[in-house]
Amino acid sequence: MFLGACFVWSEKIDLAQLTTLLADETSESFRFNDDSATWRDARLTLHEIRAARDSFAHAFGSCSFTEPLADLRSMRLLTPETAAR
Length: 85
Hints:
This protein is an alpha+beta fold. It is built from five helices and three strands. The protein has helices at about 1-10, 15-25, 45-55, 65-75, 80-85; strands spanning about 30-35, 35-40, 40-45. Strands 1-2-3 form a three-stranded antiparallel sheet. Helix 1 (about 1-10) crosses helix 3 (about 45-55). The chain is globular, with a radius of gyration of 13 Å. The chain starts with a helix and ends with a helix. The model has no long low-confidence stretch (mean pLDDT about 85).
């Protein structure tokens, strides 16, 4: 959710692409490093992510805590090492 919000706010993807991003369960579509996040061919710098978080994407609510974590684990986007950070 936050990554999608950052991409839309930064005008890197449109709403149709956002729908595709939110439905994308292929971990290979997402890449993260110390200074950027990438979904397919769209890239956000750390500065753009910070700006979106400061100005737009403040919070996300969910009725479930365990289901989003399970989804991230199944996509191999959350490992014990990343969860400890």
